[in-house]
Design brief:
Elements lengths: L4 H17 L5 H4 L60 H4 L1 E7 L2 E7 L3 E2 L2 E3 L1 E3 L10 E5 L2 E5 L5 E7 L4 E6 L4 E5 L1
Antiparallel strand pairs: 1-2, 1-10, 2-5, 3-4, 4-6, 6-7, 7-8, 8-9, 9-10
Length: 179
C-alpha cells in the first residue's frame, strides 16, 4: 500500500477532528446551573440638612493634626510690591515639592518644571481651599504666582530668603511655602 504525504496528512487531520468532537470533558458543565446570588442588603435612606460652613477665619487649627504651631508668615507691603530683600526668581529655583501653610492649615504642593498653559503644572496634595485648586505656577521677576484651572490668580508670593516664600491668596489669607 502506498500513501501520499498529502493523503496521510488529510487522514490524520480528519482523525484528530473526529476525536475532538466526541470528547465528554465539557458535557458535565452543561447540566449544572450556578447558584443564585444573594441579594445585597437593603435599608432606608434618610435626608438631613448639613450644618452651615464655618465662617472664614473661625476654623480651629488644633483640629488639624499636621498644622504647625506658631508659624510666622511675613506680611507683604501694601500695593503688592515685593518686600525688601526679595530676590529674582527662576523656574529652577521654584521647582520641587513645597510644604504649604495657609492660615494655619498644612499641605504639600509639587511644582515640577512641566510646561502647562502660560507656566508650569502644579499638583496640590490634601490642601485646603483655595490652594486645592492650584493647577499651574509661574515666576516673573521677584514674584511667584499660583493659578487655578482657568488661569485665575490664586496666590502671589515672594522669596523670604533661603527656601521660603511668603504671600497672600487672592482672598487675603496668609500663605507660606517652605522646603
Amino acid at each position: 500500500m502506498h500513501f501520499s504525504r498529502t493523503g496521510l496528512l488529510a487522514v490524520s487531520l480528519a482523525a484528530l477532528v473526529a476525536s475532538g468532537c466526541s470528547t465528554s470533558r465539557f458535557s458535565s458543565m452543561d447540566d449544572q446551573q450556578p447558584a443564585p446570588l444573594t441579594p445585597a442588603p437593603s435599608g432606608t435612606v434618610t435626608q438631613n440638612q448639613l450644618p452651615p460652613p464655618a465662617a472664614p477665619g473661625t476654623t480651629d487649627p488644633s483640629q488639624f493634626p499636621t498644622a504647625p504651631k506658631n508659624t510666622q508668615v511675613a506680611s507683604l507691603p501694601a500695593g503688592g510690591a515685593p518686600p525688601a530683600g526679595a530676590t529674582d526668581l527662576t523656574a529652577a529655583s521654584v521647582a520641587g515639592v513645597w510644604n504649604v501653610n495657609v492660615s494655619g492649615q498644612s499641605c504639600k504642593v509639587a511644582t515640577p518644571q512641566t510646561k502647562f498653559g502660560a507656566g508650569y503644572r502644579a499638583g496640590p496634595l490634601h490642601c485646603p481651599a483655595p490652594i486645592d485648586g492650584i493647577k499651574s505656577w509661574n515666576v516673573a521677576g521677584k514674584q511667584l504666582t499660583l493659578y487655578d484651572e482657568n488661569g485665575g490668580t490664586l496666590a502671589r508670593l515672594y522669596s523670604s530668603g533661603g527656601e521660603k516664600f511668603d504671600g497672600q491668596t487672592s482672598s487675603g489669607q496668609p500663605i507660606s511655602l517652605t522646603r
